[in-house]
Amino acid sequence: MDVRWWEAVAVDVDDLRQLLDPSEVRRRLGAAVFDRVAGPGGPATRDRIHLSPGPRWFAADRPVRRVHGDAAMFIGGLRALLLQSLHPVAMAAVAGHSDYRADPWGRLQRTSTFLAVTTFGTASDAAGAVDRVRGIHTRISGTTRDGTPYRADDPHLLEWVHLAEVDSFLHCHQRYGTTRLSPAEQDGYVADTARVAAELGVPDPPTTVAGLAARLAAFRPELRGTPEAREAARFLLLTPPLPAPARVPYAAIAAAAVASLPAWTRLPLRLPLLPVTERTAVRLAGHGITGAIRWLLPPARQSA
């Protein structure tokens, strides 16, 4: 019998053992998820953000670091996009100038990198990221379907985008985060995010949860469902470009995001409202998927 044949079988068995090893499965799956969120250069970017020496905008104990470093951001980010779409002018700007349909993963990677740099990066890198975004905003303008002119650097539109993001990130953290923030820490989170918002051009951003709620309520008369908003919701929830194995986990994220939206948003976006299911099965699925993401993506190392 050919000894070399047995040697080949032994090598294949060893490779199979390695592939089925839980730590190897975790590493491979985690790398695949991180590549989707952060892009091919994600590991190097992560190390540069977290390990570069220098002062930061936010100290290690600030609430913004807890919120933006938690897996609940996956649900909060999708909720924010759905909520933001209800402002017809903001949605027209996205539909007219964003590549979210042609390159949704690229847009996600740019957004996640911006959040990571401004939250965890050095002060100089954070300022540079803000300057780049402001430069992009100055070049975007147009008109809505009904002829209303808009500019991406309009402080009013910037405020709406900021409010929807902060409300979504905080709400989903309180529901699905590892540990909830206390009332004082929630105010601290809103105040932390106000620092970045002010740098981006938002006038007098709110610094407390009560202030955030009041400013959101003031936008209600401007919000409505539009064909562009409903198209974006269908794309984000039903037809995102995903490989087959990722569809079930993404469905859990999508369901949790929809369930976390205020009830008044469902009709304009043509989304279902199922209170009992949302409080039980959907919430359980949301906790399950965020727990799985935490297992796959351990916390990044931090600069001393």
From TrEMBL:
Pfam families: MPAB_Lcp_cat (PF09995)
InterPro entries, A to Z: MPAB/Lcp_cat_dom
Entry coiled-coil feature ranges: none
Domain ER-bound oxygenase mpaB/mpaB'/Rubber oxygenase catalytic: residue ranges: 65-287
Top-level enzyme category: oxidoreductase
Record EC number: 1.-.-.-
Keywords: Oxidoreductase
GO MF term list: oxidoreductase activity
Protein known as: Oxygenase MpaB family protein
